[in-house]
Design a protein that fits this description.
Length: 208
């Protein structure tokens, strides 16, 4: 009887061991399958990333090529516009040049008054052409406040006759092209006189 029980117990233990080994084998297989699935997924993701990087590199090359073409075309357009603008302005100025040449040809036989009148007419013609192109004068008034945007101070004058930082003399007119200052007016600017040593000592003695 005892032998039979032992045999049954041994058989049961053997079955349990076999089941445990089977479960361990299944578990190991599942783990390997999961690892293989993860590796496969990582490989796919890596391939997709490589493909995406390649696409982005091609797109970047395409953008760079387009930008280079744009820069080149913009430069050509600027050069063309500049040449066209120069041609237009020179065409407008040619009559002035021709009038100067005619005036010089007749200078020897012309009187001073005639020459002066001719020069004044040419000056008026030139000025009108430039004004039509957007040129305007900057003509400060004496006593006007100094404005660094429109004026260039070439000299400071110590004086009590004008407000400090006001214009005492206009040396050269300035010019604007449309709203842009292309040449500020050159002016002299008033500053407060420095007190002399004698005046300072006299003031100090009076205060005592």
């Amino acid at each position: 009887m005892e032998k039979k029980k032992k045999a049954e117990q041994t058989l049961e233990e053997s079955k349990n061991k076999s089941e445990i080994e089977k479960e361990e084998t299944i578990s190991e297989n599942n783990e390997k399958k999961m690892e293989n699935d993860e590796i496969t997924q990582l490989k796919q993701e890596n391939e997709e990333l490589i493909k995406r990087i390649s696409e982005l590199e091609e797109y970047a090359k395409h953008l760079k090529a387009n930008f280079d073409n744009y820069v080149l075309q913009a430069q050509k357009d600027r050069e063309r516009i500049l040449k066209t603008s120069n041609e237009y302005l020179i065409t407008r100025l040619l009559p002035v040049l021709e009038n100067f040449e005619r005036a010089l040809q007749h200078a020897e036989n012309a009187s001073f008054e005639t020459m002066l009148k001719g020069i004044q007419m040419i000056y008026k013609q030139l000025k009108q052409i430039l004004e039509n192109e957007g040129l305007s004068e900057i003509t400060p008034e004496i006593g006007e406040d100094f404005d660094p945007y429109y004026h260039e101070a070439v000299e400071s004058v110590e004086t009590n006759d004008y407000r400090e930082h006001s214009i005492t003399e206009v040396l050269e007119k300035g010019y604007k092209l449309n709203s842009k200052v292309i040449k500020p007016a050159k002016v002299k600017v008033a500053i407060a006189p420095k007190k002399s040593k004698a005046t300072t000592e006299s003031t100090e003695e009076g205060e005592k």
